[in-house]
Amino acid sequence: MDRDAMDHDALNRWSKRAADWLRDYHAHLRERPVRARTAPGELAARLPATPPETAEPMERIFADFEALVPGAMTHWQHPRFFAYFPANAAPASMLAEQLANGMAAQAMLWETAPAATELEQAMIGWLRRALGLAGHFTGTIQDSATTATLCAVLTMRERALGWQGNAAGLSAQPVLRLYASDQTHSSVDKAARLSGIGQNNLVRVATDAGMSMDPDALEAAIVQDRADGLRPAGVVLCTGGTSVGAMDRIADCVRVARAHDLYVHVDAAWAGSAMICPEFRHLWAGVDGADSIVFNPHKWLGAQFDCAVQFLADPQPQIRTTGLRPDYLQTLGREEITNFNEWTVPLGRRFRALKIWFLLRAYGLEGLRERIRNHVAWARKLAEEIAVLPGFEIVTPPVLSLFTFRFRDDAATEALLRRINDDGRIYLTQTRHRGTFVIRVQVGQFDCTHDDVMCVLEVLRDLAGAAADAPGRSAS
């Protein structure tokens, strides 16, 4: 047999080669710039315009990978990645993902992947207990919080329309209204669009001084919409908003929603992971009153992307909304079996539960709690140090491990951010808070250390002067 042929024997050899490459990649990540240093189109220009007519040797393919891909990547597993929220991948999760990829199951039905379905059910139970949620919650593993939020909004739509939207369409239906603060993620806007409710019918409820949704303003908005002949459908609350970490007053807002019989979804995509630490659970007090909750283990627990867990107080409304069981998807003799494709939008499903199983067993809740507690403590210490640097101001104090700062004015802050990311030692991103351009710092990469976090301080000291001298211009 041709040794270059890519069969399962070759896969075995090359998997070992790939594992060695990945070990070295992670061992030397700190030596790489965090953000890709490439111009748009640069990689594409180095690729052939047409696919090969005959097979190429794997040696050449792998060599091209080494030459082209790593240098054109932003390194999400870099321990000095403090941008966005992380998409972590703990080694145990990587191993599980390799096994899931190798088995290559399509876990759409119990029958097509019994172990995947039942392990998913078990992991939902483990995570529910880990986060301290009430025992009535069940759930499923989605690809992302965006999909989970869309499913929740679709369920709000169908429930508000008496389950007629899917069958009859929306053209003759009442105008529906959704309620969220301006601190919720853009996935809520996308869900309003894709559900047919319309982005113009997403009501931005006023927030208080702490950036939390004002429950009195929520009440007033619902009452006004009903008076105007509009039909309220549901409320989306946030625990750990993406911009500055805003925390809605869940209990107070749930009480308002319940008084008006509205479905409630809580987006805790980032901050939900912190709830494995009991001391942080006050941040989502009242969450047991929600109908739907999403958190992403891939953001802060170390599960390989993609992995978003949606908890449901009662799954039947969502199954009624998103489920469809044609004859060819029947499991004969097992009408009441759980088929998780009916809980979400896609029919096809990956075996995502395996990496959660490996992750929780390999590190234990105490090991994961220690990481999160460290990240929170290090972020607070970093904010204290930045606050005393000349010209710097902490704009929003740390919420868990997220805070924002500015340098002098908007122009100087933007110039500084450009220099930081061109420098390559760390990676930060920006947002606007009450009209002010600010820089976000979010500590959460799985393998980062105290020294990695304090590197932010070193970079700011090194680059602040240059940024002040050249506002609005990036480093050459």
Short description:
This protein is an alpha/beta fold and 476 residues long. Helix content is 41%, strand content 13%. Strand 8 and strand 9 (402-407) form a beta hairpin.
What would you say this structure looks like, in words?
With 476 residues, the protein is an alpha/beta fold. The protein has three domains: 8-31 and 36-73; 106-350, Type I PLP-dependent aspartate aminotransferase-like (Major domain) (Aspartate Aminotransferase, domain 2); 371-469, Aspartate Aminotransferase, domain 1 (Alpha-Beta Complex), CATH 3.90.1150.10. The protein is 41% helix and 13% strand. The strands form two sheets. Strands 1-7-6-5-4-2-3 form a seven-stranded mixed sheet, with helices on both faces. Strand 10 (429-433) and strand 11 form a beta hairpin. The protein starts with 7 loop residues before the first helix and ends in a 7-residue tail after the last helix.
| H and E order | HHHHEHHEHEHEHEEHEHHEEHEEH
The dominant shape is: globular
Largest sheet entry: 7 strands, mixed
Radius of gyration over alpha carbons?
A: 24 Å
Tally of structural domains: 3
CATH homologous superfamily (4th level) name of the largest domain: Type I PLP-dependent aspartate aminotransferase-like (Major domain)
Q: Beta-strand percentage?
A: 5-15%
pLDDT averaged residue by residue: 93
CATH fold annotation of the largest domain: Aspartate Aminotransferase, domain 2
User: How would you write the strand order of the largest sheet?
Assistant: 1-7-6-5-4-2-3
Return the structural class.
alpha/beta
- What fraction, in percent, of the residue positions are helical? 40-55%
Q: Enumerate the spans where pLDDT stays under 50 for 5 or more consecutive residues.
A: 471-476
CATH architecture of the largest domain: 3-Layer(aba) Sandwich
